[in-house]
């Protein structure tokens, strides 16, 4: 299960269209450790960092035939002195237009079939710079007419969604859909059961492709929805982004960002990115309970702050391949593990539970604290201490039953909440809501810049 999916930290910079970095929950923006940093960077409205190492831009989509680089830089001390851009692999540097708030813009007119190697250098008034190498991007101009193919794919999705035809909608979704195609199928069906009428239109803003042929688009949308229960007619408008993969026939949907126009009822699982709108405009959402609401952007994200999940906790046997599941708090992924991994910390997720007494294993670098009998909603901040590493030894003989390995008696109990201290400044918290056979059910939340949730 993929959730790039929503534990937003509201100490965000107010920006126009911003995407979270890969490898973290998509609504999380951790504070940079660099003295000079780039908060966000866009290439013709495309997220700079999500487009891969190289990207193709289509001439027909370029505003006035120009490639525009825009972003915002910050500095811990002092001020931003200048922003320089190289389009020829550092052979030459040109000055970008810089505003007092750190926002900058650089534009150039590309030539067909030429590869441009871009770098962005931010220099503060003390002479310190950002990580210039991290901004490297290869860009090439493509003269193909890709917009028609994108519009055909989007039109089919929009028409199927408006007509509540789940089968036809899913035929336009790739099997490798980043938010898990099964989650999207369930989500749009819940959308249909929550709405009596859906009207939706869009306008393409930009189309780009990476070196592997993946197509990225940004668009503006206008929407009207009539809930089945109360609320009257709701309408909103905004901007969002999609990506498509080559398919047969035509392009197939690969990923969507928040705000969503499809799959609103499970945004935490199907969205794999976020586009922030100016002014915190209100958008339509569907809660997990099926309620259709229109909320300011920040509140819409906050309303989906908590998730629910379960992981398997199989009993130990006399075989070293006994399996259980681990869970990653940052992205909601579950991974099958074996006991040998459990005792040495080499699990993929942050924690796992195994044995009929629900003993806890954590990955290397993670510790956990029992914060008592309380709801997850009441866990507002991580405790300053009391963290333990449940597994300090691999001395528990295979086949010895359910007692914990030497040095550990830590196990989950129903109704109690637990806080995990993760590498860096990240924290996660769970409330164990019950046990179903060999499964542990829990609610959870995550923050990348703790200790406050």
Describe the secondary-structure layout.
Layout: E1 36-43, E2 46-47, E3 54-58, E4 67-75, E5 80-86, E6 94-95, E7 97-98, E8 103-108, E9 115-124, E10 137-142, H1 147-162, H2 166-170, H3 181-194, E11 195-210, E12 215-227, E13 234-246, E14 251-258, H4 267-270, E15 271-274, E16 282-286, E17 292-296, H5 297-302, E18 307-312, E19 323-327, E20 334-338, H6 339-344, E21 351-354, E22 359-362, E23 367-373, E24 416-421, E25 427-436, E26 439-447
Parallel strand pairs: 3-10, 14-15
Antiparallel strand pairs: 1-2, 1-4, 3-11, 4-8, 5-6, 5-9, 7-8, 9-10, 11-12, 12-13, 13-14, 16-17, 18-26, 19-20, 19-21, 21-22, 23-24, 24-25, 25-26
Care to describe what's here?
- This protein has six helices and 26 strands.
- It is mainly β and 453 residues long.
- The strands form five sheets. It has a ten-stranded mixed beta sheet. A five-stranded antiparallel beta sheet has the order 2-1-4-8-7, with no helix packed on it. A five-stranded antiparallel beta sheet has the order 18-26-25-24-23, with no helix packed on it.
- Strand 7 and strand 8 form a beta hairpin.
- The protein is globular, with a radius of gyration of 24 Å.
- The chain starts with 35 loop residues before the first strand and ends in a 6-residue tail after the last strand.
- 41% of the residues are buried.
- Residues 1-33 and 395-407 have low confidence and may be disordered.
């Amino acid at each position: 299960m993929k959730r790039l999916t929503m534990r937003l930290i509201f100490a965000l910079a107010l920006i126009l269209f911003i995407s979270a970095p890969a490898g973290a929950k998509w609504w999380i923006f951790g504070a940079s450790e660099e003295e000079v940093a780039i908060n966000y960077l866009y290439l013709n409205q495309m997220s700079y960092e999500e487009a891969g190492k190289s990207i193709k831009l289509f001439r027909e989509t370029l505003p006035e035939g120009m490639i525009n680089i825009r972003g915002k830089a910050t500095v811990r001390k002092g001020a931003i002195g200048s922003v320089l851009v190289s389009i020829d692999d550092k052979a030459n540097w040109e000055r970008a237009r810089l505003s007092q708030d750190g926002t900058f813009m650089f534009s150039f007119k590309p030539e067909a079939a030429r590869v441009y190697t871009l770098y962005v250098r931010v220099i503060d008034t003390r002479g310190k710079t950002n990580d210039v190498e991290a901004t490297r991007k290869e860009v090439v101009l493509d003269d193909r007419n890709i917009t028609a193919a994108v519009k055909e794919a989007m039109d089919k999705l929009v028409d199927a969604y408006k007509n509540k035809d789940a089968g036809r909608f899913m035929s336009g979704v790739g099997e490798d859909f980043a938010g898990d195609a099964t989650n999207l199928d369930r989500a749009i069906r819940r959308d249909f059961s929550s709405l009596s009428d859906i009207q939706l239109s869009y306008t393409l803003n930009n189309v780009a492709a990476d070196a592997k042929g993946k197509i990225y688009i940004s668009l503006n949308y206008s929407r009207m929805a009539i809930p089945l229960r109360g609320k009257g007619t709701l309408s909103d408008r905004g901007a969002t982004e999609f990506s498509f993969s080559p398919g047969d026939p035509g392009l197939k949907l690969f990923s969507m960002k928040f705000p969503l126009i499809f799959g609103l009822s499970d945004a935490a699982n199907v969205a794999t990115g976020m586009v922030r709108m100016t002014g915190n405009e209100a958008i339509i959402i569907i809660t997990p309970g099926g309620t259709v609401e229109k909320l300011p952007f920040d509140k819409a994200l906050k309303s989906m702050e908590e998730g629910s999940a379960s992981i398997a906790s199989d009993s130990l046997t006399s075989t070293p391949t006994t399996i259980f599941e681990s869970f990653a708090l940052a992205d909601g992924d579950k991974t099958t593990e074996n006991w040998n991994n459990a005792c040495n910390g080499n699990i993929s997720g942050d924690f796992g539970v195994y044995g009929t007494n629900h003993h806890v294993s954590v990955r290397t670098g993670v510790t956990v604290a029992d914060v008592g009998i309380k709801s997850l909603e009441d866990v507002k901040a991580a405790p300053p201490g009391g963290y333990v590493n449940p597994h300090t030894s691999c001395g528990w003989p295979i086949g010895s039953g359910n007692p914990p390995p030497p040095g550990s008696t830590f196990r989950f109990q129903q109704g109690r909440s637990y806080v995990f201290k993760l590498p860096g400044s990240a924290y996660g918290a769970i409330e164990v809501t019950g046990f179903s056979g060999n499964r542990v059910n829990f609610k959870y939340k995550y923050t990348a810049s703790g200790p406050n949730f």
